[in-house]
Design brief:
- By secondary structure, this protein is of the alpha+beta class.
- It has two domains: 8-99; 101-131, no CATH class.
- Helix content is 34%, strand content 24%.
- The protein has helices at residues 27-36, 55-65, 80-87, 103-108, 114-123; strands at residues 8-14, 19-24, 42-50, 70-72, 75-76, 91-94.
Length: 131
């Protein structure tokens, strides 16, 4: 989740293919959801923190601007650079926040020791130590 709990705009690219412009409050959960239904590896490229407009309004502006290049839904035949150039009109565009594995996922997938799960819990912004 982003630190303000507000929706942000994200740009995801599919390996050798289109990009998706959407909104989410937790971009890593959203990428995970998208990856579940996509056979191509997805990369979270950038996030945009809108200023003066809601994330929904910015997402709609992107979709309207690039309507002619829409492949399907929120997927566009567009470069990341083109999306970034347009998004910069609406707010701060940055690399995505760091990914933190959820302790539950690590435990369920048996990819972590108990010690690694504890570290993941402590690092999580909601469940970890307050800094």
């Amino acid at each position: 989740m982003n630190r303000h709990g507000k929706s942000i705009v994200y740009v995801v690219s599919a390996l050798g293919g289109p990009i998706k412009v959407g909104i989410a409050t937790d971009v890593w959960v959203r990428v995970w959801q998208l990856q579940t239904g996509n056979h191509l590896p997805l990369t979270l490229e950038v996030v945009c923190y809108p200023e003066g407009r809601s994330a929904k309004q910015v997402e709609l502006a992107v979709h309207q601007e690039f309507h002619a290049r829409c492949i399907r839904g929120e997927w566009f035949s567009l470069s990341v650079e083109e999306a970034v150039a347009f998004l910069e009109k609406f707010g701060r565009v940055t690399k995505p926040p760091p990914f933190v594995e959820s302790a539950g996922y690590l435990r369920r997938s048996r990819q972590a020791t108990d010690e690694e799960v504890l570290v993941a819990i402590q690092a999580h912004p909601r469940w970890g130590r307050k800094r």
